[in-house]
Amino acid sequence: MKNFYRKVAFGLGPKDKVPSDPLDWATSQLNKIPEFSWKGKILPEKELRNYYRDYVYGDRKVLRKKFKNDKDGYKREKNKLRHLTGQKFWWNLELCIRHSEALKSETPVLAKLWYFWGNHFAISEKDFLAQYTTGAYQREIIRANMNQTFEKMVQEATVAWTMIHHLDNNDNVGPKSQEAQWAKEKGRKVGVNENHARELLELHTVSPDCGYTQEDVIQMAYVMSGWRPNWGKKRLETGDVHFNGEYHQPGTKRILGKKYKSGRKSLSAVITDLVNHPSCREFIAMKLCRYFITDNPTKEMMEPIIRAWEKSDGFLPDVHKAAVEVAFNYSEKYNKFQNPENWLLIMSKMSDVELVPTPKLMDLYTLGLKPTHEQRSLEYLLRELGHHPYLAKQPNGWSDVSDDWMSPELLIRRLVYAKEAYYKKNRKSQTNEFYEEMVEKNYDNSSEILKTINQQVDLSNRHVMLFNLPETLKS
Amino acid sequence: MKISRRNFLKGSATTLFLAGFNFPVLANTTKKKNLVIIMLRGGMDGLCAVPIIGDRNFEKRRKDLILDETIKLNSDFALHPKLKNFYNLWQNNLGAIVHATNIPYTKRSHFDGQNLMETGGHIPYAIKTGWLGRGMKLGELKGDGLALSLPMPLLLRGIPSNDNFYPSKKRLPRTELLQLLKSVYADKSEHDLANMMEIIANRSMMSSGGTSMSRKNSSLAYKAGLELKKINGPRVAVFEVDGFDTHAAQGGVNGSHSDSLIEMDSIFKSLEKGLGSEIENTLVLTLTEFGRTIEQNGGRGTEHGYGSAIFMAGGLLKKSQVYTDWPGLKKKELFEGRDLNSTIDARSVYASAMSSVFDIEFKRIQKEVFWGDKLQNLSDKLFKV
């Protein structure tokens, strides 16, 4: 049962009380979205996007022209521009905010679900989104909607600037739109870009199990045409997302057998139908079970989550509670391989290692300067572990199947960074008793585990062993 | 020695024709062959790497980017002067080029293009596995892939148990601890973990001898060469080189595009060094998402284009050659009036290479890896079959 604390959260830290009712401890964290526990600066997405604008404009419109004959000069000035716009800092700050929710907040279960949704509506590595707006998008669009319906989350994520840019909907032009006409007259060719439409169906809502066709994807792209950033000479592609009818494909569209009138309101109408499709709740229930419980969820596991969804119209706190309860009920039988980021947070929480820089240190940052080693430590660490949450390779996000994390190099990183973490800590606090308490609090088979790790005399080796035992890797 | 089932069947079929049925013959016909793919991210400029000689259109359109002192390969094509190691291979019949080629993707987005160069598909993100992974699956090469990067590249997805090597800058725990963990994994029936720990423990012994643990591609390539050389080592390796997206200051011989080409060139050199004589049984191919515009832009760089080139190296090449169906560089011969056209589907080259190296019939690869797409079998023309 104690693996439940690691399964739906990050284990119990030395100062955490052992909950008298574990399930209640977990589900009571899911009703509200509390303020962030991070006490330092938090910037709005819009402000961060403006930094991105300054970077893109400065590089594309100024430096490339100015240094066309000077490779080294171009590199040097571009580096300056990176620092002037905080390119190496903001995502580190976002990671501090993110990890504080796992380590310092009263709601680690909510945090683990936040990571799930951030990865479900993933922004993968594209341009410099990760460095500027991905973290803020995950705060303002994803987390902020975790006490709303799934529909609301989809509606907002779909037209979020970061998502629209990420999936190229700015290139999605109705072939019979006004813009297509004008382009044709000028000898340019424009047309639909299906990326966003496909991912909305495949990854975000109904999944291929619902049986949509390529024609449905194209029709979906028609519905989405016109949703794009408000373009400007100075802001380029970083303007707010709006519906521009000149880019919209006229005429009725047909998706999954249902007709939709043309215009601004059609996207929202399609989304309402998609989230209410049975395949959508089955898909989300499957993914929640896969995240918490096992690589191969069964119908029986998914069933209570689907029922909670149907009863509440996809009200996320209810869906989350159902998922957590299923995880609780199956905690004896199943252990889930923890992805590197969640594993790191488990280690950090249980052994009380401070991996997150302090708000004070982060707030010392001055634009234009290169952030210090310490200020950049989280981003570096996550990359070294092979799992930076803002740098997924594909729009389907990071995998939650253990096979994909099973490689020698990835496991080596867990060994060496377990050791690193040990040495980050004050040695005086690391005693035999400290480890004994930690193990007893967090593992059902605590005496077996202590026997195993105590084969090593050195405490740092015990630490490395503990966090690389099957019981920890799979929780 | 590792013999895949198909290889074995092929080997025994051959030997049936031979009066003296014996093992050396079998071993000979089932030589371990290696395939290495170097992904060139950002859009490699085929016309910078392998410029055409004496084309007025070309010289006119990018007059500030024309290279001095190129190396002449034949009457039509030259080589970027910094690609010295590749030229060395070329002179030994171990280097060749396919020109005016690309994957069938024309929309000029890195994001989509790189996805398609790895999946081999037509629609970005529609396919979740890589063409190399699918090819390896067809060849039953489980556990034979090695990526020289941290997260596994999409290109290798489609077959489990690939290895990867991208050394951590920190020291591994002592071997004794690794062995202990391994035995714990084994006791708990965690076989995958136990296997991984076995590899890690061996690796730790390998690296304790003071070998350099740099992440530079040249150093990774030397390591990979040593691994590929082993009879029970990996048969497939994948590298990545970034930085080909040179919108500005692409420059000439010392420009930014050259920097990335030099890095690619260093992989050829180190692989050869690591492989030793096994370079004879190896094929190295490059892969990129698209070429670059012929015309230079206002920043003396180039924009995203279409047709590019593939560098090939190794003893499984038929001969040194620039293999191309040259489309020409007159305005009307260009793709959308601006880019070098692609007259050879790059996937034909990769499918033929997999057919030759993995000993799988081309048609099977065409059908099962590339969905029966129209591809040419170029094995006879490019590779030793």
How many beta strands in the DSSP annotation of chain B?
A: 11
Structural class per helix/strand content of chain A?
mainly alpha
Name the overall outline of chain A: globular
Query: Which class best fits the helix and strand makeup of chain B?
Result: alpha/beta
Mean pLDDT of chain A: 95
CATH fold-level topology of the largest domain in chain B: Alkaline Phosphatase, subunit A
Given as residue ranges, the uncertain stretches of chain A (5+ residues, pLDDT < 50) are none
First and last CA, distance of chain B:
22 Å
Order of helices and strands of chain B: HHEHHEEHEHHEEHHHEHEEEEHHH
Major pleated sheet of chain B: 9 strands, mixed
Largest interface: A-B, 52 and 54 residues
Describe this structure in words.
- The complex is a heterodimer of chains A (475) and B (385).
- By secondary structure, chain A is an all-alpha fold.
- Helices cover 54% and strands 3% of the residues of chain A.
- Among the domains of chain A are: 162-275, no CATH class; 340-473, no CATH class.
- Chain A is built from 25 helices and four strands.
- In chain A, the strands form two sheets. In chain A, strands 1-2 form a two-stranded antiparallel sheet.
- In chain A, helix 5 (90-103) crosses helix 6 and helix 21 packs across helix 24 (459-466).
- With 385 residues, chain B is α/β, with parallel strands linked by helices.
- Chain B has three domains: 1-30, no CATH class; 33-167 and 214-382, 3-Layer(aba) Sandwich (Alkaline Phosphatase, subunit A); 173-210, no CATH class.
- Helix content of chain B is 37%, strand content 12%.
- In chain B, helix 10 packs parallel to helix 11.
- Chain B is globular.
- Chains A and B meet through helix 3, helix 4, helix 12, helix 21 and helix 24 of A and helix 6, strand 6, helix 8 and helix 9 of B.
